[in-house]
Amino acid sequence: MAEEAQGAPAGGRPVRVPVMQRLLDNPFLLLFLGVVVPTVFYLIWGIVEVANIPIAQ
Amino acid sequence: MAVQSPENKLWWNEPIGRAEMAWITIAFLWGLIMFGAMIYWHIEGEQNLSNEAYRIKPEVFAAKAEDMVAKYTVRDEGDTGIPVVHPPPGSDVYLISRLWEWWPILELEKDQSYRLHLSSMDWQHGFSLQPTNINIQVHPNYDLVLTMTPNETGEFGIVCNEFCGVGHHTMLGKIYVVDK
Amino acid sequence: MAVETAEGVGALVEEKYRTCPETGLRVYAQAETLIKANAVVAIVFLAVGGFFGLLVALTRWPAVHILPAEWFYLVLTAHGAAVLLFWIIFFEIAILYFASAVLLNCRLATPRFAWLAFALMVLGALVATVAVLQGESSVMFTSYVPMKAAPHFYLGLILFAVGALIGCFVFFGTLVIAKEEATYEGSIPLVTFGALTAAIIAIFTIASGAIILIPTFLWSIGYISEIDSLTYKLVWWGMGHSSQQINVSAHVAVWYLIAALVLGAKPLSEKVSRTAFLLYILFLQLACAHHMLAEPGISAEWKVFNTSYAMYLAVLGSMIHGMSIPGAIESAQRRHGFNRGMFEWLRKAPWGNPAFAGMFLSLIMFGFLGGISGVVLGTEQINLLMHNTLYVPGHFHATVVAGTTLAFMAVTYLVVPLIFRKEIIWKGLAKWQPYLFGIGVAGTSLFMMGAGTLGVSRRHWDMGFTDAPVSFDYPGTAYLMMGLNGVFAVLATIGGLLYVLIVVGSVFFGKPRTAEAIAASPTIPAGAAKVAASYGSEEHPKLPGTLVLVTIFFVSFVLYYFINWKFLSEVWPLS
Ligand code: HEM
Ligand SMILES: [Cu+2]
Ligand SMILES: [Cu+2]
Questions:
Q1: What is the pLDDT of residues B84-126, one digit of tens each?
Q2: What is the pLDDT of residues C564-574, one digit of tens each?
């Protein structure tokens, strides 16, 4: 991942922002995750469950 | 404060306080316990909703119910004209839900198991067995099959607890549980 | 007031702003007007919907039984739509604009689209409300197929949802502009992050709504022959329950906001609070499965995984906020010098300030009543005891009324002076408003949950079954509970009415907030402002009071949880 510099401390040398903070600072990545997780686990898995209900004899 | 950007630009690197960490750990473990409880109940518990279900046409379901009623009717309920059916223990029992009745009335034996089938002829209904308090959703075009074992004798009401139109509150059925 | 020219995408747009004398934030005229418009419409729907709620509660009070059956079902449908969809979502759009444009010192992205969103939402809400009042759409706001409503009922909801979706995009656009124009430094404020969480969940919510409501609309006008009832329910709740998760995220953000503005409270740890929101983003929406636990043909694996938000990780998020917010308040109060004993900080909190009182009541009631009952209700097997009983509305009146609605009411007491720049009228009555409403709603929640525990059905006109062919009697206690529910509903209505009158009165007839008025009664107390001058995370203060509170919470939670397993173990064996 690209080195992103933020908030230079007194020394002036930029520090590496921790990965988790970069995730939390990235609204669109969060949006992606927040849509994909429920879509996969709730909607898609759920629709597969319903679709697999067999037909009665 | 929470309405401004964090002063420490690298807030992720701040340590977490002891009390907070303890609370987070407890909450996390409690979550695992609650998660485990549901799984445990599937193994050891006696009340689990079966996921046996089939797609079925309302006519087909109705025919099966009528068949059962023809074979095992023991009497009519008062002067309501609703048949009371006493199916053999272990058998397949069909309960129709439709606007606005549960049909027929069932008479079951205590401590015997039955394969109860629930399906709707029209809209969704709610099977609410009272006062035992078991509540299950009933759909049209789906036959939900569950094994039910009444463990007390008496008269039980089946309330419809899914809104099903203006007669919803008149949709009341019955199950009798008798000794063998 | 100053005028500044900001560069828009492609063209130069003139944007006016003022600097808030109390917070020093830059407030852009367009953002401010949009916040006002959305908030006002929200409150109109609360007033209308609350009145419907009263009628519903009075009908369910057996001794009063005010409406005939058809009217009851019509009014109940209208109540659900007006309050759950329209009041809450209009207000949330206002919060999104506030948390982005105002808190980030930024102009609002594409105000024209924000107005389009507003217009669509108003139109959709009106169309759907009219459809319900015409009487052909008494299908409850869930509109389960194959029961059919009039086509314009679905159309109204679709228009409303499209509008809300555009509102969310405006929020995201504003985040982008704020970053590009560097109107803030480093990370967005925590409150904005909470709003972001709400907006993300809103997008999934509205997408699910579109997936299901558009075909249902087509079905209602005859283009599609059938909608599968189980699939409908699955996808519909992708919208219906997620929209409750928008509420949770939004009202948690509002709790942080009020604690910050009224007390200068800083989060104990930015890292912990934001991670808790991340858990919401990832897992909260899985709980749509709460509504699918009593349905046929879905595997236990799916039910257990989804209903538990992937091993209760989103509950973990809520429990974290449940400690970090009172903790932030305790630590702020201790810095103000309320250090004596365990609870001086709480006793000497500003209980006479309706913003604070409403916020704290909302926090406590959401946690103790709404949160605990929600987890119990959402336990796969325990759900069998409560599905579709009055326990369900009991639970969600604790979450969405005592929690969200009360939090939104509380923040209005800050929005009126800061955004509308009007004095609150009837300050004496305003002090009591959160208590009246809060106690009323707590009562209705508890008594509905009580009646539900005794098996009483929700959405039901006649618990006596007078017109049924056979008979069944709920226990006498259940009747008593429904009577008490009615009494507390009246109390809640008085509290709600007071809120509407105070807010509308202040907005239209309140005195303007002149410099003298601000000096005489600052919205943000001087002490809070001083503490807020240096912000960031709190450095690990001692929080004995908060620890006692969370311990009480935890013990109640565990006990109530296991009591319900005990109840379950006594019903007829099922497999
Ligand atoms: C004066 C305040 C209120 C009172 C007295 C009240 C009372 C009630 C009652 C008695 C029910 C009916 C339960 C049933 O028969 O199934 C109900 C349902 C409901 N209420 Fe309220 N409520 C109030 C405010 C609110 C607010 C502010 C919201 C949302 C933010 C809300 C959301 C709902 C919803 C979604 C339903 C379910 C409708 C349905 O089953 O389709 N209520 N309310
Ligand atoms: Cu029914
Ligand atoms: Cu019904």
A1: 999 999 999 999 999 989 989 999 999 999 999 999 999 999 9
A2: 999 999 999 99
Which region among C50-54, C64-68, C335-339 has the lowest average model confidence (pLDDT)? C335-339
Distance, CA of C287 to CA of C307 (rounded, Å): 5
Report pTM: 0.93
C393 CA distance to ligand 1 centroid (A)?
A: 7
Report yes or no on A5 lying in a domain. no
Domain ranges of chain B: 11-44, 52-178
Task: Note whether A37 contacts C286, CB cutoff 8 Å.
Answer: yes
Which strand (E) or helix (H) includes residue C221?
A: none
Distance in angstroms (rounded) separating the CA atoms of residues C85 and C72? 19
Number of domains in chain A: 1
A29 close contact with C: CB closer than 8 A: no
Of C51, C54, C55, C56, the one to substitute when testing ligand 1's pocket (max ligand atoms within 8 A of C-beta) is: C56
A5 touches chain C (CB under 8 A): no
Grouping H, G, I as helix, E, B as strand and the rest as coil, residue A52 is coil
Backbone phi, psi, residue B32, to 5°: -65, -40
**Which ligand ends up closest to the CA of C74?**
1
Single-letter amino acid code for the residue at C219: W
Q: Quick one: closest CA in B to C375, which residue?
A: B34
CB nearest C305 (choices: A7, A30, A41):
A41
> At B175, is the secondary structure helix, strand, or coil?
strand
In angstroms, the CA C400 to CA C88 distance is: 9
Does residue B83 have a cis peptide bond before it, meaning omega lies within 30 degrees of 0? no
ipTM above 0.90, yes or no: yes
A38 contacts chain C (CB < 8 A): yes
Contacts of B54 in chain A (CB under 8 A): 53-56
Assign a CATH topology to domain B52-178.
Immunoglobulin-like (2.60.40)
- Evaluate whether residue A47 is within a structural domain: yes
